[in-house]
Design goal:
heterotrimer; A alpha+beta (about 90); B alpha/beta (about 400); C alpha/beta (about 180); B: about 400 residues; alpha/beta; Rossmann fold; about 40% helix; C: about 180 residues; six-stranded mixed sheet; 7 helices; binds iron/sulfur cluster
Chain lengths: ~90, ~400, ~180
């Protein structure tokens, strides 16, 4: 880690948008959203509601960005088509 | 304004006049006695078109400094002024300004803190703000207020410093006393003080983030960086003072010795009391008493080495504070001078004399009493008390 | 002239006591002297007894305490003499300049001072010329006549630069009249 003479001046952040490299996906502790492309109608409600910008909008579909998704479940709750299911992460490991 | 002229100005007017010549982009302030004259003059200068600055009449001192922080972060030359309760209300933002390394200049017309309600002078306000990371310069008279207000901008904005500066003068005693002030011409000020060259201004073309979270993994590194910068600023401040001295025929230092040659005891003062103390030293010297005076101009950063050097040959130092740090060793200045000298071989005795509280007049006679006390301590080579309050009625104190 | 002259002004809030101390300082400054002009650091309240001070010296002035042993005492309001010990600390070889209808001997008889007493009816002068009892400018004329601390011309110059237009004119007239009407 950087020493006092290496950290940026007064703790300023000089690269814009570097919060993106922060892996908030590590905070996901219990459940993760799983998207079913068949059920999805591309209404984009999840994209609007996700507090972490972890729904990525593509040309004609949405995808989940697990690097940033914190697993709050809001997308699943808001999806009118039942296309997002919260799945226990414990099941995976 | 053509060539520099001697103008009749009180301390507040001297500050305002200097600020006008320094051409700040933004002034955000809230008037409070005894700083009010500064704010009045500056708002007149702006209203009359003599100063092209954004003048923000804030609704409180907290807001005033907050506005200054925003303006300074944008790269603006920024100024504010306050006193007493106003500085206390700014407290939270003082740390933010210095930690952001923003070169804001603030005049403080020193005034006591309530309660009891008191509008008169002492240094409870700025002494209480000594750990906020601001440079603090204390002035003796209106001339110094003028000269150091100009230097404060140079110091603050220097890339080797980048810290906010408080330029302090005693409320009423200096703020409301009219004196002859030798001013500089606008072009002289311009040549001494170039426009600000901000390092990381807020700019949509070059985005930066200021004021983000500092987690324990980074906080100490960021704070130590600030500590090193503050310490290092001493040499820059000296350099800038020397340049000012050379350019304009002044003779300023971060500390000043008066009749210290062969002095056995020294009175250490800060601010306007220094002038009165000099007259007392002259009187003592006429009577053949070996008394000298050390005036501290720069209190933050504390010039530890210079203090050690200047006081290495005296037997006793009497430190005249203008406030009390309750429940400790008198005033902050006394404690810090003691601490600075502690590791010296043959260190002098150091006794504190908090005085001039809440506007109590300090007279030549007070300093003579202090000097006599110091000579007694020198004789018995022993300190009996850590401090004694001067200018207070009752047991344990030295006279009104 | 003495090395340093200390002047103490007594009056009431609203009478321009502080301005008087400043005008005198400015006049001396014009003559190349070192000066201080300052109020007795109080909250000014209309009618309350007020003090202000002026120091004039040919050398730099360092002392910053209030003035306790003045060379000159100037009383702007005759009623202050009842409320305040105006002669306190006044040097024996000093001057007391008072705005009063009394003759100098008459005033001196009631005061404990050895200083020279000079009087002037500045209130009448001010009422006639300024239309208000603002005696702070005229009393300076009397002060100058008695003490020659500064030149009359310097006071007039300062009054001219402090006030504008007609106000400056009448104030200068008031200073001149109080200079000539001084009872020494
Ligand atoms: S809310 Fe449901 S249906 Fe709408 S885009 Fe998201 S996943 Fe698809
Ligand atoms: S679970 Fe929460 S964080 Fe993750 S994609 Fe859904 S709304 Fe966003």
């Amino acid at each position: 880690m950087k020493t006092w003479d290496e950290v940026p001046f007064a703790g300023y952040i000089l690269e814009p948008g570097n919060a993106e490299s922060y892996k908030t996906g590590d905070w996901r502790s219990r459940q993760k959203p799983v998207l079913s492309q068949e059920k999805c109608t591309f209404c984009l409600l999840c994209w609007i509601y996700c507090p972490d910008g972890a729904i990525v909008r593509k040309e004609d579909a949405v995808e989940i960005d697990y690097y940033h998704c914190k697993g709050c479940g809001i997308c699943s709750y808001e999806c009118p088509s039942g296309a997002i299911r919260m799945k226990s992460e414990l099941e995976e490991t | 304004m053509v060539a520099g002229m001697v103008l009749a100005l009180n301390g507040d007017e001297a500050a305002a006049y200097a600020v006008k010549q320094c051409k700040p982009d933004v002034i955000a302030a809230y008037p409070i006695t005894p700083q009010t004259i500064i704010v009045e003059r500056l708002s007149e200068f702006v209203a009359d078109g003599e100063l092209d600055a954004e003048f923000i009449s804030a609704e409180s001192e907290h807001s005033a400094l907050s506005a200054c922080i925003g303006a300074s972060a944008m790269g603006a030359r920024t100024y504010t002024a306050t006193a007493s309760q106003g500085l206390a209300l700014m407290y939270e933002m003082l740390f933010v300004a210095s930690s952001f390394r923003l070169p804001i200049v603030m005049s403080v017309a020193n005034r006591a803190l309530n309660s009891p309600l008191n509008i008169w002078n002492d240094m409870s306000d700025t002494m209480g703000a000594r750990d906020c990371g601001w440079i603090q310069i204390y002035n003796e008279n209106a001339q110094e207020v003028y000269d150091f207000t100009i230097q404060a901008f140079r110091i603050a904005e220097d890339h080797g410093v980048l810290l906010p500066v408080m330029v302090c003068h005693d409320g009423f005693i200096v703020s409301h006393s009219t004196e002859g002030v030798e001013t500089l011409s606008d072009s002289e000020v311009d040549s001494f003080l170039p426009p600000r060259d901000p390092v990381y201004p807020l700019d949509v073309e070059r985005p930066v983030t200021i004021g983000c979270v500092g987690v324990p993994e980074y906080y100490p590194e960021i704070k130590y960086q600030q500590e090193v910068a503050t310490k290092k600023s001493i040499s820059k401040i000296k350099e800038i003072m020397n340049e000012f001295n050379e350019d304009f025929g002044r003779n300023y230092g971060i500390i000043e010795e008066y009749r210290m040659e062969d002095a056995e005891v020294a009175i250490l003062t800060i601010g306007s009391a220094s002038g009165t103390a000099k007259d007392a030293v002259d009187e003592m010297r006429t009577e053949g008493k070996p008394v000298g005076l050390l005036k501290l101009r720069l209190f933050r950063p504390l010039p530890v080495k210079d203090l050690r050097k200047a006081l290495s040959d005296v037997k006793v130092v009497g430190v005249v504070d203008r406030h009390i740090s309750f429940g400790a060793l008198g005033g902050a200045l006394n404690m810090e001078v003691r601490a600075a000298l502690y590791e010296m071989k043959d260190r002098p005795h150091v006794m504190g004399f908090p005085t001039g509280l809440g506007g109590r007049d300090i007279r030549v006679e007070h300093f003579i009493k202090i000097a006599d006390e110091l000579l007694k301590i020198a004789e018995r080579d022993m300190l009996e008390e850590d401090y004694r309050v001067v200018g207070c009625r009752g047991p344990g104190c030295i006279g009104p | 002239m003495r090395e340093m002259v200390e002047v103490r002004f007594h009056g009431r809030g609203g009478q321009g006591v502080v301005t008087a101390s400043r005008l005198l300082a400015e006049a001396a400054l014009l003559e190349g002297k070192r000066v201080q002009g300052f109020p007795a650091f109080g909250a000014e309240r209309e009618g309350a007894p007020i003090r202000a001070f002026t120091r004039i010296s040919s050398n730099p002035i360092r002392v910053r305490s209030q003035i306790y042993t003045p060379d000159v005492v100037v009383v702007l309001d005759p009623t202050v003499i009842r409320a305040e010990k105006v002669t306190e600390g006044l040097k024996d070889d000093g001057w007391l300049i008072a705005n009063t209808t009394k003759e100098p001997e008459e005033l001196k008889a009631g005061l404990a001072t050895k200083a020279k007493v000079v009087t002037v009816d500045a209130t009448r002068i001010a009422l006639e010329l300024l239309g208000a009892p603002r005696v702070n400018t005229p009393i300076l004329g009397t002060l100058v006549k008695a003490t020659q601390l500064v030149k009359l011309d310097s006071v007039i110059k300062v009054v001219k630069s402090t006030f504008s237009g007609r106000l400056a004119e009448v104030n200068i007239k008031a200073v001149e009249r109080a200079y000539h009407e001084a009872k020494i």
